[in-house]
Write a structure and sequence with these properties.
heterodimer, A: mainly alpha, rod-shaped, B: mainly alpha
Chain lengths: ~50, ~240
């Protein structure tokens, strides 16, 4: 084959896979944030753990 | 069947369909007399363009529904945004695969041909639409102005489709002629092309549904954040009183 055909198929498959993965991972992160509190709650006076 | 299961099934069917299209397109179908192996780009390039049109059509109808008072619903606005974003991805891929076809066929990666130019304009118009959706403001105002922008941008879709018949173009006539109900490929080539259309349409449905769910979660998160901020302000006010 000429190389152009493979390039065309490669661009389409890689781009669609990349976009799909980005949408799904952002959706998962948003779902996780929605399930828990926006910020972890701290007891008064509690410091960040090292 | 639950919605989630329907979505998973759609995703799996799209994946299997695309894999089969690639297999048939690259290894099973014959070369064409005029175009040699470049004809294999046919199985992905027209389906990309079709999905872009479908996505913009969906964004157009959803926006129309949002602007009509009786059917005004934030879900329609979300659907328009999700569909347009997927449309932009497919338009970008249409331009890239077209350019890859153009280099060996016409000798150039790009030319200011009516079809190519109006397609590039379509890409820019919807990028602008997506940018407009991100301009901050009252959610209802943002949704209304986005809906108007989607209606304006859609004007370019029929211009793109008919540009090959309206003006002299380097680009050949559509492989699937909707007005004359004619298909210019036959046998295994026609079946592979059809499979490409179906598979990428399923991929569009799956991507749009996930993008819609992401937008719904983002809206919920923004509402939650606003409510929390208001509660904090109220609590501060009570302390001061």
């Amino acid at each position: 084959m000429s190389g152009y055909v493979e390039a065309g198929y490669g661009v389409v498959l890689v781009s669609l896979a990349g976009y799909a993965l980005s949408v799904v991972s952002r959706e998962r992160k948003a779902r996780r944030r929605a399930a828990g509190p926006l910020l972890p709650e701290r007891a008064p006076g509690q410091q960040d753990e090292a | 069947m639950t919605r989630s299961r329907i979505l998973t099934t759609t995703g799996v069917l799209a994946l299997v369909g695309i894999a089969a299209t690639v297999w048939l397109g690259l290894w099973v179908t014959p070369n064409a007399v005029n175009f040699g192996d470049l004809v294999r780009l046919l199985y992905i390039h027209p389906p990309m363009a079709w999905v872009a049109f479908l996505a913009y059509g969906m964004a157009f109808l959803s926006s129309l529904g949002y602007l009509w008072r009786r059917t005004r619903d934030p879900r329609l606005d979300r659907l328009a945004g999700a569909s347009a974003e997927v449309g932009v991805v497919f338009t970008g891929l249409t331009l890239i695969t077209g350019s890859i076809w153009g280099r060996p066929t016409w000798g150039v990666w790009w030319t200011w041909d009516p079809l190519l130019t109006t397609t590039a304009l379509l890409f820019v118009l919807y990028l602008g639409y997506l940018a407009l959706r991100r301009v901050p403001g009252d959610p209802e105002v943002v949704a209304r102005r986005s809906a108007i922008a989607a209606l304006i941008a859609f004007v370019d879709v029929p211009i793109v489709y008919f540009s090959v018949s309206w003006w002299r173009s380097l680009h050949q006539a559509p492989t699937v002629d909707l007005s004359g109900r004619h298909l210019y490929v036959h046998g295994s080539m026609a079946w592979t092309l059809l499979l490409g259309f179906v598979s990428f349409t399923l991929a569009y449905a799956w991507l749009t549904a996930h993008r819609y769910r992401l937008a719904a979660l983002a809206d919920r998160e923004a509402d939650e954040g606003l409510r929390q901020a208001l509660d904090e302000r109220r609590a501060e006010g009570e302390v001061l009183v």
